[in-house]
Amino acid sequence: MLHGISKRFVLYKEYNMLLTEANLSRRKGLVFPQPERKVKVKKSMGAIKHVLGERKRDFVSQLEAKRLDEEEDVEEEELK
Question: Global pTM?
Answer without folding.
Answer: 0.69
